[in-house]
Hints:
Multidrug-efflux Transporter Regulator, Chain: A, Domain 2, 5 helices, globular, 62% helix
Amino acid sequence: MKKLLTVQQSARTLLLSTPSFYRLVTEGLLPPPFKVSPNRSVVYEHEILSVIEARATGADDEVIKSLIAELVETRKHLTANAREPNSKRTMSQKINLRIAEQDMEMAHESV
């Protein structure tokens, strides 16, 4: 299962304040957090690391915005696949399966 970071942990990882983190989310330069409970918002750690890696390779804001859009779209597919009717798998199992499939696709693309 992918590791989750709170907004505060994500901001610390990026050496940002929490308000700066949210400003960059609003600008489309960081992945938006999602609620796991009424009082807890989180981001996938791999999404934050993807932004760091892209910046480290010299990606400009437009490339980062495109990356963020892809990451958010991937989330939508994960949750859509997890909601498939007539399946005996739990939502967690479906999400983990989709993440594993994506990891395999990414590994294949990097070869």
